[in-house]
């Protein structure tokens, strides 16, 4: 079982991710739904993996991604835009497309790090 | 009649047997002021022989009367006037230019010379008036005593050249008008350094009104040197191949010391070859298509945004379906609840779409959310609160929360009986704290159910999480009361 931080700005989708993560046998952390709470969670919460929506109520969540990279915590982006909205710094970060396939999320969590 | 022995021939001095020489020989000079040829002074003979020999059109006007003796080349020029013109007095031979001839005679016989370049005259040499241009050079012919006895004129018709030049000039002016009035930009750069030699007003506009004629591209537009355009010009110059570019990005400095501005250009570099076939110039022609490119980019952005919204909506529907099925007791209940929740989401989208997704008026949003619960009877709802706007994310959450509250009220609460009432009030406190109240009255007592379904999770957990506020619900004897508080900033989606 891993602790999964959920960063997602829309209530319905945050609830969906919580359910998917729980159903996969993991423990959801959050959801953090705005940039500042997400930054605080990324910096201070205890978790093994993060699902990071790129757009947080009109703000991009890249500072959160930078914090996760610094802490060495694996994560994936979630986006309705796909890979197109990403710059080179994040080219290696997988992008999860909406709507969500729980099987794909499971594989991404499993494939992220041996420690999970 | 026997041919005259050459030694005795009075016309031996001519030394020529062409048509004009024959005219001289056959003309009855006795009826002219010149008299019979045997009486001609040597100066007249010498001058006649000289002009008869010449391939250049020459006419001599002898004596006060200006008796005309001319050569073969001049006879071509004289047209239908020839040969009647030969031996006539110049003022009568060319009556239409008698005044002009008169002046020539006066000046010439006084020892002066005259020269005209492209002199325009109207002559009747073909039976109709004809505008002609000529180079005319007049000088006196002296007799044995050194006194002017006649005038010799070299007559070169330049009509064809003058008309050709006029046509060229008109053509050039047309091209210049085309060039300067063209809606596209045009310029010509010459030589290996690509020196600007022609610039039309549209091109000048493109480069911010800079004066570039006579300057090399590298010096005239230093900011484009490193953007590949010089390499492209070099390539066209050396290879002779035209180059076309579409929607090419370029950074141009429109104002001295000003910032570089991004433009997009469609253009062609067309090599222009000189007579020996080598590339001498490059003609540059094109259009500033910045507006078109920006519109295309904007459209692409809109399509991306639409795609994003669609994907988000699908995920939202996925959430509604999976969570509703999790808690539903029968497929029929599930189907009804799923439909109602999707309708609530769509209702919020409608309110937002009316305002371009910038946000929503809270009252309009509340009215849309409670619409499914308003029966045909007297209105069960009382709304009160100030005009205020909520952000698009908060709007969807609040609409979904009101839907869940309404659904519960219809099932178990105030809206399950005809006398039940719901008061929805909102306010903003002095501390910029937003407060939303849903207060039921007149219904049966409602007890808190032990399980946490979709609705309570949404309104009590995720909604306050999103708005970084608080939410609570009271199951009072007289009805359910729900309260949400959050900062106005958060409700406007402006909280970070």
Automatic annotation (TrEMBL), chain A:
Keywords: DNA-binding, Phosphoprotein, Two-component regulatory system. GO terms for biological process: regulation of DNA-templated transcription. Coiled coil: none annotated. GO terms for cellular component: cytosol; protein-DNA complex. Residues 3-113 form the Response regulatory domain. Gene3D superfamilies: 3.40.50.2300. GO terms for molecular function: phosphorelay response regulator activity; transcription cis-regulatory region binding. The modification 4-aspartylphosphate is found at residue 53. InterPro entries: CheY-like_superfamily, Sig_transdc_resp-reg_receiver, WalR-like. This is Two-component response regulator. It comes from Paracoccus haematequi.
TrEMBL record, chain B:
Its EC number is 2.7.13.3. Signal peptide: none annotated. Residues 117-170, 245-301 form the PAC domain. One of its GO terms (molecular function) is photoreceptor activity. Keywords: ATP-binding, Chromophore, Flavoprotein, FMN, Kinase, Nucleotide-binding, Phosphoprotein, Photoreceptor protein, Receptor, Repeat, Sensory transduction, Transferase, Virulence. It catalyses: ATP + protein L-histidine = ADP + protein N-phospho-L-histidine. It comes from the Bacteria. It holds the Pfam family HWE_HK. PANTHER family: HISTIDINE KINASE (PTHR41523:SF7), TWO-COMPONENT SYSTEM SENSOR PROTEIN (PTHR41523). This is histidine kinase. It comes from Paracoccus haematequi.
